[in-house]
Amino acid sequence: MKKIIVPVDFSKQSEIALKAAASLARKKGSEIFVLHMLELSAALMTYNEHAQYEHATFLIKLAEKKFAAFLNKPYLKGLKITPIVKHHKVYSEVNEVVEKHNVDLIVMGSHGTDGIKEIFVGSNAEKMVRNSEIPVLVIKDEIEDFDVKRVVFACDFKEENIEAFQKAIEFTDKLSASLFLVFINTPGDNFLSTSDAYTRISKFLQKASSGLKVEIYNDYSVERGIHNFSNSINADLIGMPTHGRKGLTHFFMGSIGEDVVNHSKIPVITFKI
């Protein structure tokens, strides 16, 4: 893992993400690109070009000043840090930065949930997940030393998830981490017998050319099953497939992906299908 992008707005959540990225970078010798996207108002665009230039120059200088303070942290000492300022808050442009610098991973902070309002849905983190061509790691809580040893990958093991699965294998290999595969079996319309579940899983692994084993974990809901299984093996990270612009994959039913990210205390990484 050579290069990591951390989009920041200079908030506490941004710093939580930056700390996690710094832990990964220090272990893997990675370079960190710290990305800030300016927001030029629609009203500004109706002004003349000189006014636009002056305002944009002011915002860039302000961002540079904030960068200087934001990046002056002990945990960043000795790491290669490259600040980048984009003029507009267009998440699809992040892919241009990814391609230009051959970036491997995006790390973002997120509020998650306050127990009443689902903050992740419609948030900057979700927009990044929808637009990113590379894995996006979402961090909610500060982790003093983010050391990934055990990664859970959960999906329904339908053929459409093979590409995301292969990306998960590649990612865990880069971290020298162990990958644990889980199929969550729940009561109701989506229930599969043990025989049917293993038949689906076997076909999936055969097409994916993988010899890894899959745990069938029974629980009352998919979200609960993912959390309980991950906690039972002391996982450091939960991986899930994503449909990109369709948002986090609804690979079982409803908005499971968003629910897992919102409620999980364990960091979550998404792999695009």
CATH-derived architecture of the largest domain = 3-Layer(aba) Sandwich
| Structural domain tally | 2
CATH class of the largest domain: Alpha Beta
Overall outline: elongated
What number is the mean pLDDT?
84
Summarize the biggest pleated sheet.
10 strands, mixed
The string of secondary-structure elements, in order, is EHEHEHEHEEHEHEHEHE
* Strand ordering within the main sheet: 3-2-1-4-5-10-9-6-7-8
| Tally of DSSP helical segments | 8
Instruction: Calculate the terminal CA-CA distance, rounded to whole Å.
Output: 20 Å
Low-confidence stretches: 115-122, 248-254
Topology, number of strands: 10
Which structural category do the helix and sheet elements fall into? alpha/beta
The percent of residues in helical segments reads 25-40%
SS strand fraction: 15-25%
Radius of gyration: 20 Å
CATH topology call of the largest domain: Rossmann fold
Task: Identify the notable features of this structure and list them briefly.
single chain; 273 residues; alpha/beta; Rossmann fold; 2 domains; ten-stranded mixed beta sheet; 8 helices; 10 strands; elongated
